[in-house]
Specification:
With 137 residues, this protein is mainly alpha-helical. It contains 4 helices and no strands.
């Protein structure tokens, strides 16, 4: 089996981010208290999406040749971002389906869990940002 390419990983993650944006929009319509928190998550996802588009563009053309070790690290970061976006999606689903009610669950624990996930996503995205900056030098 051929290892996952950066281009394929970017495309898959862009799809996940797009689906998460839709889920966030629907969630905010039903849990109004979450609007500001989810705005911060959306900004982070938007920034990640720009990184992914740049990385995909670099790797699908012949303009940039990433060293093998950097490619492997980037693929690992992309997988980690995919895991976090999946956990975010699951948290929104869990919150929406909570027996306590979505607003109450969000206030008591969902907000804190989402902040932790957003910080993890920001950390992974920052690593990708650094790689993009290093290659552009």
């Amino acid at each position: 089996m051929e290892p996952l390419s950066i281009t394929a990983a970017c495309l898959g993650l862009i799809g996940s981010v797009t689906n998460l944006f839709i889920h966030i929009n629907n969630f905010v319509l039903s849990v109004r208290d979450a609007r500001r928190d989810m705005d911060a998550v959306s900004r982070e996802l938007s920034s990640l999406s720009l990184c992914l588009q740049t990385l995909q563009s670099d790797c699908s053309g012949s303009t940039v040749d990433y060293p093998l070790q950097l490619k492997q690290s980037l693929i690992a970061m992309l997988k980690n971002c995919g895991i976090v976006t999946s956990e975010m999606h699951n948290l929104l689903t869990k919150t929406s389906e909570s027996r306590l009610g979505a607003s109450l669950y969000w206030t008591t624990s969902g907000r804190t869990e989402m902040d932790k996930l957003r910080f993890r996503l920001e950390s992974h995205k920052s690593t990708i940002d650094v790689a993009l900056e290093m290659v552009s030098m």
